[in-house]
Specification:
about 325 residues, mainly beta, Methylamine Dehydrogenase, Chain H, four-stranded antiparallel beta sheet, globular
Length: about 325
């Protein structure tokens, strides 16, 4: 029987954002309150992370300087700094306004993930070394000190690669790793003794964590951690350390890919091993939409802060912006 293709609800033509020449690795939106503007940054294997307008997709600038694939990119909440993690064994922090590299933090292996604390004082990184590194941005700015202030192995016994890290608070860091576990690390700014064990652990079915996103739901809905691993998407309520939902997907996340939860918590988007970007109902896991447009597997997806659109990045080197409500 011939393949009739995906069923679509409100079929739409996305905004296509060209510019990259290799597979995408990560996308992140940032709403800059002072300017009432949304920005979108992208990490790519072509070594050239980019920043765009988060609504129109128009190119703003490129951060040039890495010598290896860029796996992670994060804007701080003010939109003034951008951090990138690369296969060239470094993390760089850039002036997001001028594109100038401010600091380069050396590592000893491929760096896969980086994230700012909410108060913007520290930076965490992780990757193939299996070590969490914490950098003090105030020391870097004032004293030019680029050495980490903390180094914490995921496991003292075995090497466990770190795929994603995300600060939950200014002192609690979450790491998603190759053993399928999400670890909670308590790392206060003034702590003299580094933790040797996580304070809590959340578990998937054991597949490597491929993507991890933190969403603070409105109306005291709690903080939801979205995790893509193996062929499933998991949703954890962080305050209670409780698994809310786990849904088996029609795709897998063994190479790249990910999932993103709508800011109001009603639906989520997932993309991975095929060409389609799918939207699902959060409460039931039922597929709501299936959008085709990319010419390569989906490598990353993210909702915009206002939830009006979501971005997908593909192995085809393009970013596409899709409307949450195609009828609008």
């Amino acid at each position: 029987m011939a393949d009739k293709g995906p069923n679509t609800k409100g079929r739409q033509i996305p905004i296509v954002c060209p510019g990259h020449t290799r597979p995408l690795a990560e996308l992140q939106f940032c709403h800059v309150k002072e300017e009432n503007r949304t920005l979108l940054v992208s990490a790519c294997h072509d070594k050239m992370p980019m920043m765009r307008d988060g609504t129109s997709g128009d190119w703003i600038g490129t951060f040039a300087g890495h010598k290896g694939a860029v796996w992670s990119c994060q804007l701080d909440s003010s939109g003034s700094l951008c951090a990138t993690a690369s296969g060239d064994f470094s993390v760089q922090v850039w002036d997001a306004i001028t594109g100038q590299s401010l600091w380069q933090f050396p590592h000893k292996h491929i760096v896969k993930t980086v994230d700012f604390t909410p108060n913007l004082k520290r930076l965490a990184s992780g990757g193939h070394e299996g070590i969490v590194r914490i950098f003090d941005l105030q020391q870097a700015a004032q004293q030019k000190k680029l050495d980490p202030v903390a180094e914490i192995p995921q496991s003292p016994a075995t090497k466990i690669l770190i795929a994603k890290c995300k600060w939950w608070t200014d002192s609690i860091l979450l790491t998603g790793s190759s053993d399928g576990k999400i670890r909670f690390w308590d790392i206060p700014e003034q702590q003299q003794t580094l933790p040797t064990e996580p304070t809590d652990i959340l578990e998937t079915d054991g597949a490597e964590v491929r993507d991890m996103e933190l969403t603070k739901l409105p109306n005291n809905g709690g903080d939801i951690l979205t995790v893509a691993a193996g062929d499933k998407v998991y949703f954890f309520q962080l305050q209670e350390k409780k698994l809310l939902h786990v849904y088996k997907m029609p795709i897998h996340f063994r190479e790249e890919g990910g999932a993103t939860l709508h800011p109001d918590g009603t639906r989520f988007v997932a993309g991975g091993s095929d060409l389609w970007v799918r939207v699902f109902d959060f409460a039931t896991g039922n597929e709501l939409e299936c959008n085709k447009g990319h010419h390569g597997p989906i490598r990353c997806v993210r909702y915009s802060p206002d939830g009006k659109l979501y971005a997908s990045g593909s192995e085809d080197g393009t970013i596409r912006l899709w409307k949450t409500d195609p009828e609008e």
